[in-house]
Amino acid sequence: xxxxxxxxxxxxxxxxxxxxxxxxxxxxxxxxxxxxxxxxxxxxxxxxxxxxxxxxxxxxxxxxxxxxxxxxxxxxxxxxxxxxxxxxxxxxxxxxxxxxxxxxxxxxxxxxxxxxxxxxxxxxxxxxxxxxxxxxxxxxxxxxxxxxxxxxxxxxxxxxxxxxxxxxxxxxxxxxxxxxxxxxxxxxxxxxxxxxxxxxxxxxxxxxxxxxxxxxxxxxxxxxxxxxxxxxxxxxxxxxxxxxxxxxxxxxxxxxxxxxxxxxxxxxxxxxxxxxxxxxxxxxxxxxxxxxxxxxxxxxxxxxxxxxxxxxxxxxxxxxxxxxxxxxxxxxxxxxxxxxxxxxxxxxxxxxxxxxxxxxxxxxxxxxxxxxxxxxxxxxxxxxxxxxxxxxxxxxxxxxxxxxxxxxxxxxxxxxxxxxxxxxxxxxxxxxxxxxxxxxxxxxxxxxxxxxxxxxxxxxxxxxxxxxxxxxxxxxxxxxxxxxxxxxxxxxxxxxxxxxxxxxxxxxxxxxxxxxxxxxxxxxxxxxxxxxxxxxxxxxxxxxxxxxxxxxxxxxxxxxxxxxxxx
Length: 567
Known about the structure:
Blueprint: H1 5-8, H2 13-24, H3 30-43, H4 47-53, H5 59-70, E1 73-74, H6 92-97, E2 100-105, E3 109-114, H7 120-130, E4 133-138, H8 141-166, H9 170-180, H10 183-199, E5 203-209, E6 212-219, E7 222-229, H11 234-244, E8 256-264, E9 267-278, E10 281-290, H12 305-315, E11 320-325, H13 332-340, E12 350-354, E13 365-368, H14 377-384, E14 391-394, H15 400-411, E15 415-420, H16 425-434, H17 439-445, E16 446-458, E17 464-465, H18 468-477, E18 489-490, E19 502-513, H19 516-523, H20 528-537, H21 543-552, H22 558-563
Helix pairs in contact: 2-5, 3-4, 4-5, 9-11, 10-11, 14-15, 15-17, 16-20, 17-19
């Protein structure tokens, strides 16, 4: 088949041969060939590579066609390796840009693997620079990019060791900064960050696997696989994020934490970056904190009116400890920040101690914990008591010293808000005892414990009432529950909720108000099981009961409440 004249005018002789061979082999249509011809100028690539880049032909098929028309050997084996020895006069960056992999060099013959042997000027430049005879083999572009990436990672590791030994790593750091500043890398990182906003994600996970970087988003508490970073960009993407977060761009052996302030799609985001080394590379988690989302009030979190009123009454207390408990990701920080909004900071002295300070709140004094200079929770708390505070927020009671100072603060006229990592409100009492607080001091200082979870909310656009058969199935699964009242809905899935059936989250909670009954139980030093049993007989509203009410109200599903670990 003859190539149309209007296409052939923009092709070299070698490209014409490639096009004719691809058409004869039914690898490409005339319409797709036209797309590749139009795309190659923008890609700054030859016709063959353009076909791969825009997805018209696979890199394996392209390589085989090229090898055939040039009479070269096609290689595609896992045993192929990037030549470890340096070739004088040839920059590895030059080889990387032109998709050339040196396989072996004995001083007179340089054997290379190329994606496109039509690029004769590149091969001639290599021949002149190396003063050697160049033996050409053809390989698939993806395989070549992987070999280049593996070589780059190997050199990074070697250079790190060398830099540490010699104390001179300026050139290495400069190289990493250079590759992190290339246009494709900048676009890739920008796309990843845009994905956080577009999906409404709380976290972006970027993980090194044997095949390269995989990225995932956590949306409404669930991690969703999103895609992969090309091998050729993997190291550069990680370096770019480190650079933006103010981290050591060359450090790959130790954990690092950083921060990026960014405006993405009109949203002011505070991105917290955590990096840890793994056996396959590095694992990055970027937590997105949207400043606009934290301007929350207690009434907008999802508490029912009764619960909100109980919390507000506790916050109006002049002194005592209020604890918010739950596992990681249960919304404790959001609830505490909403609680702070209930105070008039113009009339009260409010001080927080956080690790980290997640959002800056107007009119409130916030302290960032810095372990490197021994500014711990305990030390900061001891100091701020001399600042005449009315309300103190302690990010977490994580050690005995912090718990004891907070207890003393509550007993001496301060209202203390804090968190504990426990599953239930009752178990928080036991946790305080484990931190060294005697039961009689707990009963004197503690005024309330709020336990909470976040559960997904049904998508209003597609949720549907369950049918009779599905009602019967629920009774078979949860026959001991009172499933009467309200209308039960199920998750369906639509474009609006990305086919998940859920969109957004709300809170379910239980609250223990320390009244005379609770104080009497604390004075007896009873365990968690006994404590919860007494509360149950007195009609205490558990997390599960609160969740069941939201199911009856059509906000969520029973499966979602059960999935959240409430039983």
